[in-house]
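Box S1 | Example of a co-folding query
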Amino acid sequence: MCGIVGYVGPGMGSHPLDVVMEGLARLEYRGYDSAGVALVGDGSLFSEKRAGKLVNLQEALARDDVPDARTAIGHTRWATHGGPTDENAHPHRGGTEGKLAVVHNGILENFHALKQELDADGVEFTSETDTEVAGHLLAAAFERTGDLTRAMQDVVVRLEGAFTLLAVHADQPDKVVAARRNSPLVIGLGDGENFLGSDVAAFIGYTKQAVELDQDQIVTITARGYEVRGFDGTPAEGRPYEVTWDAAAAEKSGFDTFMEKEIHDQPQAIADTLLGRTDATGQLILDELRIDEERLRGVERITVVACGTASYAGMVAKYAIEQWTRIPVEIALAHEFRYSDPVVDARTLVVSISQSGETADTAMAVRYARSLGGLTVSICNTHGATIPRESDAVLYTHAGPEIAVASTKAFLAQITACYVLGLYLAQLRGTDEHAAKARELMGELNEVPEKIGALLTEMDRVEEIARFMADTRAVLFLGRHVGYPIAMEGALKLKELAYIHAEGFAAGELKHGPIALIEPGQPVFIVVPGPDAPNELHKKVVSNIQEIRARGARTLVIAQEGDQDVVPFADEVIRVPRTSPLLQPLLTVVPLQVFALHLSTAKGLDVDQPRNLAKSVTVE
Ligand code: F6R
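Box S1 (continued) | Returned holo structure for fructose -6-phosphate
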């Protein structure tokens, strides 16, 4: 939530503004209800900010007489304190003649108390934000200390809550100072210029050399280098790393929207997530986990913590991991985890799933699990993010940058990583027979990218159905077994992209209440397991289709190639390639993503940046 960019270059010019605006464009998915920049030249500070999308800021800047600068900061906002207005947009200025500017991601929980103190000193506020408090405090601290880094040190110890703060001051035009607590920040190292960003997308157009920071650290960047300190001033080191993708991966590559591009990235995302995780004989090798094998063998229960789409990947994982390992798996929504007094001990493996690695609820759940002695493994798509850094081990997904707010390729990569983890545990704890089964399933998983590629060429009818349904007011989704989380995911995609009431149900639950929703013409998607699924699953779902059809539902059936049993009861059959029952989610979810994308487009909505949302939910 909120995107932040900072830049210091070698000389005066328009480059700092260009860098920051480009960074904001790449970070806009993190928040898009207002945006602003501050530029520092020699002894002067210029700022501009506007409510609405980045284009409003661009238009305002085009009308401004923008001075040359050597340093710049920028912000794209997802509002927490104070609505999305020009006044509440960042940067906020502080001090005599407004010589200081600050941008902020997070929430300052004690801002009321601090504001009262500043009110009593006669400080005048121009916004309703918590951030402005930090601006005034920093300005006052700068007046006392004459140095922005010292000022930041003085102020951060007074702040409670989560924050990344970036500040510039007209009297120190050659530096940007930042601080982070429970909110993301990464350094980018250029040649004679340096960068700060909420994530590496902020500066990927300029450098792939990044530096990871810890919590409670202050960083000062200049054109020549960077310096990291703890909140108490103790010198510290960042951890340098190289970003493995380039700017092209964060472009639309000829597609109309990032979401469409990311749906088409899915075969690659799965292939890359599988890559290098088996040896020449097909055995799974997960040395990267660096967890003692004995400890993993001793795991007695698994708890998955995640939110939203990532939690549905966890639901799929439950079915697979329980079947392969016989270890009980429980799914906890990360924001509920702490409040349920969870049973976690040294034999509990707590698997967090997060695309961004910065979701505050999930990060808090991981910390809590560690405090209870649990063994924590993070499945994450973002190198060096908070959650993997704070976990005992990490299994990265390799989906590349996901820019569209609605998750697609990260979801498939998460499911893939869960399969890899489940099969690895089975191999580790099991017999030769288990190892052979793991090899067989890995072989099958390796075929999935090609199958998705083929499926994506057959989506014309789904697009057409979506266009016809642009006026639909409610859509239901049914599934059993691994089809159940896919029904939930189909409904979530439709809610967030098309603002349509959508519900996903376990098909067996229908008769216990929801069937009352069925009236003539009600569209219902049904995710049908393959005919080879265990426990007569297929037959049972076919019966569920008949039950709703008998009550007038319009049945949109997602079924495996060759499944003729569904035909008599389906208004539409959407075919997916064959695969083992537990691997089907990787295929059955694709038509539902495509459906939501095209229905949103047919309604003329913003597919990549749906209302009220932001990509990375960094506040609890
Ligand atoms: C929905 C969506 C969200 C995220 C959730 C967790 O399309 O993207 O439900 O899945 O906010 O985000 P991460 O995976 O970054 O922890």
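The chain has a mean pLDDT of 94. Residues 3-249 form a domain with the Glutamine Phosphoribosylpyrophosphate, subunit 1, domain 1 fold (CATH 3.60.20.10).
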